[in-house]
Write a structure and sequence with these properties.
- It is built from twelve helices and twelve strands.
- It has about 375 residues and is α/β, with parallel strands linked by helices.
- The protein has two domains: about 260 residues, Aspartate Aminotransferase, domain 2 (3-Layer(aba) Sandwich), CATH 3.40.640; about 90 residues, Alpha-Beta Complex (Aspartate Aminotransferase, domain 1), CATH 3.90.1150.10.
- α6 links the parallel β5 and β6.
- The structure holds pyridoxal-5'-phosphate.
- Keywords: Aminotransferase, Pyridoxal phosphate, Transferase.
- This is Aminotransferase class V-fold PLP-dependent enzyme.
Length: about 375
């Protein structure tokens, strides 16, 4: 446990900063003190290098990837571009993260379309609930989903959902903020229109640098929500005539957001992404799966099986104590310096590789004492 006596289980909120990310940040800060040493070409090369690293966790195609400031920015770009008309519906999960709700609410208000919220029947998993909602809703035009729920780690089977979305003639938009870097992304199988992910959780990078992935048709015809020069191909002379703007840059660069060509966050993002790629996402998922399984097993052993989250992802789960014990359990964990998020009646547990299965057995033991 490398954080003194703290057991940090809140990586779904924000990853702890790796030593490598910290070192990269210090170097970038020092370089920033001498801006004359930084050429425009070097900065552009740095943006391209980080774009390629992010693509390495998606489908490997750097042409499909753009840096943006937030997941909401990426999802607002998707909402701005996807066709939607009065009477049509956007399908999403009840309680999904607001960055993948607000852009659709806004677009529905503009177009007269409506949100069709997927709700679960008792005992039903989210995958089956989505498939049932697709059957029940004939006019779905956009399906906007996560791979893993942000609040309790419940996993959606996108291999089952994506073909049904396409068969319904709807666009697929994915917010992978709670899975990219911790679970393999099947972009080629899922064929989404747009994908969003923050960089500061499972990608181990800084806040303020997120990622947008766009399918090839949107790289050719998509419109950015911000008019920034960095997304325009102004040629060697870098001229912006008054009569008409220069054409968008190649590929998903037409969606590149302004202000992100900054060495400090780029260096931090690169260090985080390189480490994730070096560890390998399948190995990260396997190791974190051992941790959350150890937690589930220990809950069973303490007679607290009802506190488990069924069908959770390997890296993310939640304790579900009875409402009247929630605060007592959370306080007991805090006293033991075990850090997690308490929200909506759940205690969200999100380890990374600094956590061992033995640590998770201790979490269950502390929780059981407060049960
Ligand atoms: C699923 C999900 N999407 C997005 C975000 C953050 O989005 P944004 O970058 O828009 O703040 C979070 C943060 O917790 C999240 O859990």
């Amino acid at each position: 446990m490398p954080f003194g006596d703290v057991l940090y289980l809140d990586c779904a909120a924000r990853a702890p900063m790796l030593r490598g990310v910290h070192a990269a940040a210090r170097l970038a800060l020092e370089a920033n003190a001498a801006p004359w040493t930084q050429s425009f070409d070097a900065l552009e090369a740095q943006v391209e290098a980080v774009r390629a690293l992010a693509a390495g966790l998606l489908d490997g195609d750097a042409e499909a990837v753009a840096p943006v400031p937030s997941a909401a920015f990426a999802l607002s770009t998707a909402a701005r571009n996807l066709p939607l008309a009065a009477g049509e519906a956007v399908l999403l999960l009840e309680g999904q993260f607001p960055s993948n709700l607000l852009p659709w609410q806004q677009r529905c208000a503009e177009t007269g379309a409506r949100i069709a919220a997927v709700r679960r029947a008792p005992g039903q998993g989210w995958t089956n609930a989505v498939l049932a909602a697709l059957d029940a809703e004939p006019r779905v035009r956009v399906v906007a989903l996560p791979q893993v729920r942000w609040d309790d780690g419940a996993l959606l089977d996108l291999d089952r959902i994506a073909p049904r979305v396409h068969a319904a003639g709807a666009a697929l938009v994915l917010d992978l903020s709670q899975s990219l870097g911790a679970l393999p992304a099947g972009i080629a199988r899922w064929q989404p229109d747009f994908v969003a992910s923050v960089g500061y959780k499972w990608l181990l990078g800084p806040r303020g640098l997120s990622w947008l992935w766009a399918a090839s048709r949107w790289r050719e015809a998509g419109v950015a929500i911000e008019q920034h020069w960095s997304a325009r191909d102004a040629g060697d002379g870098w001229r912006f005539p008054v009569e008409a703007p220069p054409p968008p840059r190649r590929g998903a660069r037409r969606f590149d957001a302004g202000g992100l060509d900054e060495p400090l966050p780029l260096a931090m993002a690169a260090a985080g992404l390189e480490q994730v790629l070096a560890w390998g996402v399948p190995d990260i998922a396997t190791a974190l799966g051992k941790c959350t399984r150890a937690l589930d097993d220990a809950l069973d052993a303490h007679g607290l099986s009802a506190w488990k989250t069924p069908g959770h992802a390997p890296h993310l789960t939640a304790l579900r104590p009875p409402a009247e014990r929630l605060d007592a359990v959370f306080d007991a964990l805090r006293r033991e310096r075990i850090i997690c998020t308490r929200r909506h009646g759940l205690l969200r547990i999100a380890p990374h590789l600094h956590v061992t299965p033995e640590d998770m057995s201790r979490v269950a033991a502390v929780a059981a004492r407060a049960a």
